[in-house]
Design a protein that fits this description.
This protein has 303 residues and is α/β, with parallel strands linked by helices. The chain is built from 14 helices and 5 strands.
């Protein structure tokens, strides 16, 4: 679990880093005549095509919702190539978006990182065991966390939209919540069969409580974002899972148009708002369900 949370910190922090010199993508194989530029490691053409198809569908969905088209180049990489094309030390298997060179990077193969999250199912309560097996069981009756990490690639696609459109996200946590709203809305609307893969893992983390966490407020994670990310990765990962869970609630109550309402509101407000102003802004200009995340955060934390 702690490894997972550390990597959540790494790929999010990665978004604000400048682009660094990398190997030219032409050293990789590529899918020809595709709308999205796709480069992949040798031997993974089928995997690249599968991921590309899902990314394309999510991109089209987000584009229609937001009326904006960002630039994204998809890299589907082996462990060896990962080291060449990832300018920060992100563990192999964690999807991430590099805003500097507009690349979405995903793993081509199953890996130790994904496998490290397979729980000892024989030690879990029956209800939780059944959820995990239902969400992450493979065709050969093994467990793999690949379904969850593949969906995180669509979270990263969301970052391409708001960073390239130049939205003022107001708070660090708002940027993460927004892209999770996009992700959950897409899955619920277009791939509802994948909802368990998206929701079971965050549910596991959130229901585990806050014992041992130094920071739990939204004020903390906004004002001390880098500190929490770098020094308290476990704590940061809990925040990420809370935002996943909140996005599910927002969609279930507010429906598929919430993402666009939040986008329009943030796009139209360039001034930095105080907490009181932000809460009123979310309530009136965005959506009551999003405002509820901010208003009820502390109460939900103490449950």
């Amino acid at each position: 679990m702690q490894q997972y949370i550390f990597q959540l910190m790494t790929f999010t922090f990665f978004l604000i880093q400048p682009a660094k010199a990398q190997q030219p993508f032409q050293q990789l194989d590529s899918l020809k005549n595709e709308k999205t530029k796709v480069y992949y490691s040798a031997g993974y053409s089928k995997r690249a095509a599968t991921i590309k198809n899902r990314v394309d569908k999510a991109m089209v969905f987000y584009q229609k919702m937001l009326e904006f088209t960002p630039e994204v180049t998809l890299l589907v990489l082996s462990a060896d190539d990962w080291k060449k094309y990832t300018p920060l030390p992100v563990v192999y298997g964690m999807p991430h978006f590099n805003a500097g060179n507009k690349t979405l990077v995903v793993a081509a193969a199953d890996n130790p990182f994904w496998k490290s999250f397979i729980p000892p199912v024989d030690q879990l309560p029956e209800e939780l065991r059944e959820k995990i097996q239902g969400a992450y069981k493979t065709a050969d009756d093994h467990l793999s966390m690949q379904p969850f990490f593949d969906l995180l690639a669509l979270h990263e696609v969301g970052h391409a939209f708001h960073t390239q459109a130049g939205l003022t996200m107001q708070r660090n946590w708002m940027g993460e919540l927004f892209v999770n709203i996009l992700l959950h809305t897409y899955i619920a609307e277009k791939e509802p069969e994948a909802l368990p893969a998206l929701t079971v893992f965050p549910q596991m983390v959130v229901t585990g409580g806050i014992a041992g966490f130094k920071f739990t407020s939204l004020k903390d994670v906004h004002e001390r974002y880098d500190e929490i990310a770098s020094k308290y990765p476990n704590n940061y990962g809990w925040y990420q899972c809370r935002w996943h869970a909140a996005s599910a609630t927002i969609y279930n109550i507010g429906g598929k148009l919430v993402g666009r309402k939040v986008w329009d509101a943030l796009k139209g407000e360039k001034e930095n708002l105080t907490d009181d102003q932000l809460l009123l802004f979310l309530e009136t200009a965005a959506d009551k369900t999003v405002a509820a995340v901010m208003r009820n955060w502390e109460k939900e934390t103490r449950k």
